Amino acid sequence: MKNKYLIYVATPAITLATLGVIMASSVSASTAIETQNPMQNLVNAIAQKFNINPVDVQKVFDEQKSQMQVKMQEKFTDKIKQAVASGKLTQDQANKVIAKRADLESKELDFKNSLNGKTKSEIKSMRKTQMTELKQWSDDNNIPMKYLLIGGPRGERGHMKTGFGDKN
Question: Per-residue pLDDT for 81 more than 90?
């Protein structure tokens, strides 16, 4: 009689415990996937589709990203040089813009990390604060914002701001 009782009680308990472990593992795995590099899913999909080592695919992504960053930096530098040559910026202002841009880039990763766990509303507020501070710096140094946003944030219609339109 005791054996039958154990079977009726223990089997469902073991089944529930097993399901709990499986569910916890899948939640943990999906959370880990979500916190990975956003491109990691694409890297893994390409690697799997073409039976390539994911590390090799990631190297290609990293090389392409690096090349894009170099091109964007060159574009930025060229535009700043053109602004000085055409008298739109002084060399002192250009130096300040270059230094500010480098400072912003060095702090961007920390800023992005500070967004983890924040709501969309909190993120929007933090970005707005960041832009307000940048605008204040721009005003304090008598430098139009457009020179800081070359290849930077998107405009209100989602188009990349080039930094050299008629508007600030």
Answer: yes
Torsion of Cα atoms, 69 then 75 then 76 then 79, to 10°: 180
Q: Is the pLDDT of residue 43 over 80?
A: yes
Give residue 151's pLDDT.
62
Q: 138, 145 in Cβ contact below 8 A?
A: yes
Distance between CA atoms of residues 151 and 50, nearest Å: 33
Distances (CA, A) of 131 to 3, 41, 104, 135: 70, 31, 11, 6
pLDDT at position 1, please? 52
- What gap in Å lies between CA 22 and CA 156, rounded to an integer? 45
Query: pTM for the full model?
Result: 0.59
Contacts of 167 (CB under 8 A, 6+ apart): 146
Q: Note the pLDDT tens digit of each residue in 60-69.
A: 989 998 999 8
Question: How many other CB atoms are there within 10 angstroms of residue 80's CB atom?
Answer: 22
Region 124-143: mean pLDDT is: 93
